[in-house]
């Protein structure tokens, strides 16, 4: 298939195909056993039994395998690489499973019948030291004891076929389906009532799902048991919602970011990368820079103005200790450093990179805008989020020119928030603000938040559900119509699936 990676999710196909294979084998094995009860023209020959069994079971196995394979093929159309490759891999495995079930397993059944089962007309005696199976012998009227049976006499009796069954000896489920259920389903009003009932239930579920349920409308933690229950208390502790172990204000925060110098239409070139590659830098692709010089005096003033514009974004977090926005803007701090040391700003393009490096390594700095110093009061040494500064603002130099820069700000919303109804507007605020600033200044700016990956994943999943479910139902309907040649039955079956 050309997949470059095999992830843990792909191994889950094993458990799926085990269930499908077990269903197919059950269908074949049941038909194979029923062939023993047929007339001498079928039960008298292994070849005839196999032909009868395949005619009876092949269509059922083909339909179930085809519908399942089609569903996984539709899954492979999603935009998420790991789910797409999972779907294509699973569809191939389903096909291989079907081929083995209709070829390898029948051969095993014939081998078992020919070398492990004693020939007795109806093939009902297991060759275990030449004795008759108790259950099989009783069913075929050949005696109920594990005693030796004459083969020729057995052939004569078995050839007469089954002797019927005693309803009083049936199990409870068998009596129910043979009696009350069968008689009830023969009545038209019962069938109509069942159809109306399930239609109402199904329609109610669809309406409720479409109007009241969202895929991510759940809180991070829900109380599933009564308050004080030991298991619920354990879940609260584990998920960090217990007041005794409540999260502190120093928890991780997601950030909103503006990036300068990247091509907004194609910021990353992923040509030749592995979409399933994880934690490998090469799999992220190569950034596509516009080549703009961000070190000019005008660009320096533009970056400072961008930092000032971030103050207007409503989702920007405010430090409760200082009352100031939690911003990370290297150019604004660099400007403050230069002014506090009576140095000019902006600086000449050729002198910017050396000046930035001097600022970053001035550990004796004691004035405003220090990057790092001995007193640990620099902007990159904050007591609240000491590691965020270097991660959330900075620049990239190529051939002595600053061609890429980024600035950020912490978000007010909890980092664990996953409700699309809340995090999508937050992302759109940062994106739209960046677009507006880019139009005003005539520069390329990309705005996004740290939850963009989650948003993209959830939107791809939602799109896959909204397009895949109708397509799957159409395929199921088509397969059922072709297999049953009855539009009414196929429609009722599809409605039951829905």
- Binned, the helix content reads 40-55%
Query: DSSP strand (E) fraction?
Result: 5-15%
| Coarse morphology | elongated
Order of helices and strands: HHHHHHEEHHHHHHEEEHEHHHEEHEHH
Separate helix tally: 19
Instruction: Give the biggest sheet.
Output: 5 strands, antiparallel
Mean pLDDT: 78
* Quaternary: single chain
Distance between the termini: 32 Å
Class by alpha and beta content: alpha+beta
Give the low-pLDDT segments. Answer: 119-165, 213-222, 240-250
Radius of gyration (Å): 36 Å
Strands, total number: 9
Report what the structure shows:
The protein is of the alpha+beta class. Helix content is 53%, strand content 7%. It contains 19 helices and nine strands. Strands 3, 6, 7, 8 and 9 form a five-stranded antiparallel β-sheet that branches. Helix 2 (13-34) runs antiparallel to helix 4, helix 2 packs parallel to helix 5 (81-101) and helix 18 (452-484) packs antiparallel against helix 19 (487-497). The chain is elongated, with a radius of gyration of 36 Å. Residues 119-165, 213-222 and 240-250 have low confidence and may be disordered.
